[in-house]
Specification:
InterPro entries: Ferritin-like, Ferritin-like_SF, Ubq_synth_Coq7. The chain is built from six helices and no strands. It is globular.
């Protein structure tokens, strides 16, 4: 989950970098979503510290690729940037649902696990809100590159999740 939030943070950073200059009317929407991602990332960074977990060795690669993906899709226009958002948030929403199911399978009760479940639900709902914003408010599906962008981005996200589970 940490790497996903790191990547999403960088994607929105890249989108904002471009769209704040080329399409200021959408910049505030990107900033709102980015601010939520910053909060998610901060929570996971706190949990990493609290439980003495080292972040993935893929951190810097994820930061670079995330920014490039965000900026690159934004250069192709608002609808293409939103198609990227739709694809990422679809996969991340599914990943959060899987994580939530996995935590439900764990035996026993703890306040810490309740806190984690609450955060997973909250963050998943934020991600699905971003997805709905991309589709309903910004017509992501009208992007000239919709099918190719969403296919590539979804495959990349699924691949990143798979890789992180093994490293």
């Amino acid at each position: 989950m940490y790497l996903g939030e790191l990547g999403a943070n960088q994607i929105y950073k890249g989108q904002y970098f471009i769209l704040s200059k080329t399409r200021p009317e959408v910049a505030h929407v990107i900033m709102d979503m980015w601010n939520q991602e910053k909060g998610h990332l901060e929570t996971f960074e706190e949990l990493l510290l609290k439980y003495n977990v080292k972040p993935t060795i893929l951190k810097h690669l994820c930061e670079t690729l995330g920014f490039m993906l965000g900026a690159g899709t934004a250069l192709l226009g608002t609808k293409t940037a939103m198609a990227c958002t739709e694809a990422v948030e679809t996969v991340v929403g599914e990943h959060y649902n899987n994580q939530l199911r996995e935590t439900m399978d764990l035996r026993g009760y703890s306040a810490e696990m309740d806190y984690l479940r609450k955060k997973i639900k909250e963050f998943r709902d934020d991600e699905l809100e971003h997805l709905n914003t991309a589709v309903k408010d910004w017509n992501s599906r009208d992007s000239f590159a919709y099918n190719i962008i969403t296919s590539i981005v979804k495959a990349g996200c699924i691949g990143a999740i798979w890789l992180c589970k093994r490293i």
